[in-house]
Amino acid sequence: MNSDLIGKLKDITSISIMDNISDDKLLPVTNALINGGINLIMFNYNSFSNDKKICDNIKLLKEHFGNKIIIGAGNVTKQSQIVDVKNASGQFVLLSGKDYALVKLAKKSGLISVSSAVSIDDIIDALKNDTDFVKIFPINAFYDGFKNITLLYYEDELNENNLSTTQVYNSLKKINLDIINMNIAY
User: Fold this and answer.
1) Which secondary structure element, helix H or strand E, spans residue 92, and what is its range?
2) Which own/partner contact pairs does 122-129 have at CB distance under 8 Å and 24+ positions apart?
3) Please, what is the end-to-end C-alpha distance for the chain in angstroms?
4) pLDDT tens-digit readout, 129-168
5) What is the largest CA-CA distance in the chain?
6) What does the alpha-carbon distance between residue 174 and residue 98 come to, in Å, rounded to a whole number?
7) Which of 19, 101, 162, 173 is spaced 20 to 30 Å from 49 by Cα?
8) Model confidence at 48, in pLDDT bands (50, 70, 90)?
């Protein structure tokens, strides 16, 4: 199952980070996103007053939209959050920090793991610890010495560093990277 989901994630070009959205707008906004071609949805743990709200939202959207969406949580820092995301029918977790026990728990739980990296050493550590994806932040932390890494990058980071999507894409494709451009939709 995870290999199918990983394949789907590699083909996705945009993510909607659904932070601070009111309950009455959650379903209509998600429906509009799906109709617009955006089906990867994430809630960040640092954006809500309590962790339960994130899982309630994941569960509601998964029940309502089913396989039309891929849904998970970001800024995951605790084992209990992984368990909660899984129990809410989440499919992935974006892990914050270098606690690779969280990667192992996510994979054991059947979730896709995305590790954050701010340096080349972080990338190597994440891959050694069997993460499914590596999210590099900021984009300029990366250089072309590594091959066969799936890279998630944010359009906003490119703009901040005066880089065009085409420049980054072309330079990274030269070294055989799988690239996922995570445009943020609010």
Assistant:
1) strand 92-95
2) 122/98, 123/149, 125/98, 125/100, 126/100, 129/100, 129/103, 129/104
3) 29
4) 888 888 876 555 554 444 444 455 444 444 444 444 455 4
5) 47
6) 29
7) 101
8) low
